[in-house]
C-alpha cells in the first residue's frame, strides 16, 4: 500500500495502519494518519486532507507551538480537535536545550534519550494520549495525530497504537523510522536551521541538525523501557496511565482491525 500522502506544506503525512498483527488480522488502512504540523498547509493540502474524511485530530503540540503556528483546516471540517493547555507556563525544554547546549550531535542524542524517557509520564502527554485512545474507542472514522515535526510525540503514540493492535515490533519500528526519509531531511534541513536561528539566535551544525530532525531505534526503546520499568510492561503502563484496560483495548482493536 502507498502510505505517504505527498502534500505541499504539511510534512511527514502518512497512513500508519494497514499492518498485519499477531492475531492474523490486519489493521485497516485509511483509518489512522500521522503528520507534522498543519500551519503551512496550502489550499490544495486542505482539499487532499478533507478527502480523507478525518473525524478526530489530535494536536500534540505545546500551547506556545500552537500559538506560533496555528493549524489550517478545511472550511468544512466539523470533526473533533483534541489538544490541551497544560504546561503553558513551563519552559520549552527543546528550545532551552538549543539555547544552552554545546550544539554537538552527542548533546542532541542525549537530549532525545532523556525526552523519550520522560515523555510517557509528562502530565500533558498522558492527558492527550489518554483522550486519543478514548476517541479511538468511540470514533468509527479516520483519526489524525500530529505534533510539530510528526516524529517524537507522534512517534510514541503511533507505536503505542501498533502495540495495542498487535503489530510486530519490526513493522512498528519500520513505521517509526520512516520519518528519516533522506529526501525529506535534505529538503527540510535549511528550513529547520532557519527556524531554530529565528527562535534561539543560534546556528546548528549539520551534524546536530540531522540528529534533531531524525529518530533512532534506541529512542523508542528508551520510552518503552521507561514504561516497563514502572509498570511491568507496556500493557501495564497503558492501563495505569492511559486508562486502556482490557475492555478498552478490545474495543479499540475492534475499530482498528479488519
Question: Gist?
Answer:
By secondary structure, this protein is an alpha/beta fold. Helices cover 53% and strands 7% of the residues.
Report on the structure:
With about 260 residues, this protein is an alpha/beta fold. The chain has twelve helices and five strands. It has a five-stranded mixed beta sheet with strand order 1-2-5-3-4, covered by helices on one side. Helix 4 packs parallel to helix 9, helix 8 packs across helix 9 and helix 10 packs across helix 11. The two termini are about 15 Å apart.
- Give me the Rg, rounded: 18 Å
The CATH architecture category equals: Alpha-Beta Complex
User: Beta-strand percentage?
Assistant: 5-15%
Number of strands: 5
Give the biggest sheet.
Answer: 5 strands, mixed
Secondary-structure element string: EEHEHEHHHEHHHHHHH
Secondary-structure topology with pairs:
Layout: E1 14-15, E2 32-35, H1 43-50, E3 56-59, H2 63-68, E4 80-82, H3 93-100, H4 105-118, H5 123-138, E5 143-146, H6 153-165, H7 169-177, H8 182-200, H9 206-213, H10 217-231, H11 234-242, H12 246-256
Parallel strand pairs: 2-5, 3-4, 3-5
Antiparallel strand pairs: 1-2
Helix pairs in contact: 4-9, 4-10, 5-12, 6-7, 8-9, 10-11
Amino acid at each position: 500500500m502507498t502510505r505517504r500522502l505527498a502534500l505541499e506544506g504539511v510534512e511527514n503525512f502518512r497512513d500508519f495502519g494497514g499492518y498485519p498483527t499477531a492475531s492474523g488480522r490486519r489493521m485497516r488502512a485509511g483509518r489512522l494518519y500521522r503528520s507534522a504540523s498543519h500551519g503551512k498547509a496550502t489550499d490544495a493540502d486542505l482539499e487532499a486532507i478533507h478527502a480523507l474524511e478525518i473525524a478526530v485530530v489530535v494536536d500534540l503540540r505545546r500551547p506556545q507551538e500552537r500559538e506560533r503556528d496555528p493549524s489550517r483546516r478545511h472550511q468544512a471540517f466539523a470533526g473533533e480537535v483534541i489538544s490541551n493547555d497544560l504546561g503553558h507556563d513551563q519552559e520549552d525544554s527543546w528550545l532551552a536545550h538549543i539555547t544552552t547546549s554545546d550544539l554537538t550531535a552527542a548533546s542532541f542524542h542525549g537530549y532525545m534519550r532523556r525526552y523519550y524517557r520522560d515523555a510517557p509520564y509528562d502530565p500533558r502527554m498522558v492527558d492527550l494520549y489518554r483522550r486519543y485512545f478514548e476517541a479511538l474507542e468511540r470514533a468509527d472514522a479516520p483519526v489524525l495525530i500530529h505534533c510539530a515535526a510528526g516524529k517524537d510525540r507522534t512517534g510514541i503514540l503511533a507505536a503505542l497504537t501498533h502495540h495495542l493492535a498487535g503489530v510486530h515490533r519490526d513493522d512498528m519500528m519500520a513505521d517509526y523510522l520512516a520519518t528519516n526519509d533522506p529526501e525529506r531531511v535534505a529538503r527540510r534541513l535549511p528550513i529547520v536551521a532557519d527556524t531554530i536561528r529565528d527562535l534561539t539566535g543560534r546556528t546548528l551544525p549539520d551534524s546536530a541538525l540531522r540528529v534533531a530532525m531524525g529518530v533512532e531505534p534506541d529512542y523508542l526503546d528508551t520510552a518503552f523501557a521507561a514504561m516497563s520499568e514502572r509498570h511491568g510492561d507496556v500493557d501495564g503502563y497503558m492501563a495505569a496511565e492511559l486508562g486502556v484496560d482490557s475492555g478498552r483495548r478490545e474495543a479499540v482493536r475492534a475499530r482498528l482491525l479488519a
